[in-house]
Amino acid sequence: MPNWLLPENIADVLPSEARKIEELRRLMLDNFRLYGYELVMPPLLEYLESLMTGAGKDTDLRTFKLVDQLSGRMLGLRADMTTQVARIDAHLLNRATVTRLCYAGSVLHTRPSGLHATREPLQIGAEIYGHAGLEADAEIQELALASLALAGFDAVRLDLSHVGLLRAIIAQDAAAVRDEAALYTLLRAKDAPGLRALTAGYDAVTRDALLALPNLYGDIDVLARAREVLPPLPGVLKALAELAALAGSALGRAEVAIDLADLRGYQYESGAMFALYVPGLPNAVARGGRYDHVGEAFGRARPATGFSLDLRELARLLPTAERKHSIRAPWGSAPELKEKIAELRKAGEVVIQSMPGHSNEQDEFECDRVLVLADNGSSWILKNLG
Length: 386
Hints:
alpha+beta; four-stranded mixed β-sheet; elongated
């Protein structure tokens, strides 16, 4: 086997693709700042017990683990930056007011998260800490949709769900609470026969509600059906009202779909959840939701909601960027030449000096002008090529 081969689902990013990714990163981070989000940069690796604090079992399975050669303790390479940012809010910033944070950086996964997915996503995201109201959820959803719009996606589908529904339905049934993890698995799979078998001994109201959930999916009208078939428990009514508000705020900006049995992130999230889909990608391009309980693991419970997406996956869907017009210049140390090149670069022009004996070959740049010495022999002028 050649020693330059990379592991499966790990790849180099070549110039034109790297430029797309970097321009998306800058565009989104600059937009986050316009909303008042502050940039943080968590470390790539941490002690494993710190990295896994507040994370679910899925994150544990996705995390690369190694032994620290200095301390002998187990380290983990981050598979997700969300809990790291929650730690920063809880322990390093320790603010009493609302805090808006954003981040961008590579994460590593032991296994790819979906079809054709990389094991080294470039995760970018934003989080709001300190406000439990629906206003924070609405802002995060708006920011996620705005991020995709900035990337040029206008055909976006927003899928909404809510963790609070299942928890409210089973709260009064001890047998259902005991089977919570199994119910989560069956609902995700929409396994109706499995649900009927598991819930055979439950309270009738609880059982009927659980059996109804897999069929409660569709457009915003599904919420009216849910109010008819689900018990009018306070937690159920609150969850449906929140979904209605979030769906309403997205109308006109995205196609809205609701699936009340979609519980991905159930162990991690605590309220409304969303996923964004775009044409050309079978997996969700962005995910977000409320996760109020993660801060408790760091000793400071704070309401929290946020979203993240993979810039590499997003950039792969975009067309190849046009080559940037640039200027070819000779190599030389003459003061007049250096001064002219500096002037052009200051004006935003790309000036590529040719190394002696070599031609220029770049993926990103197209030299359509050349810098030549004027007839007077003392000044440098631009000349069009071709």
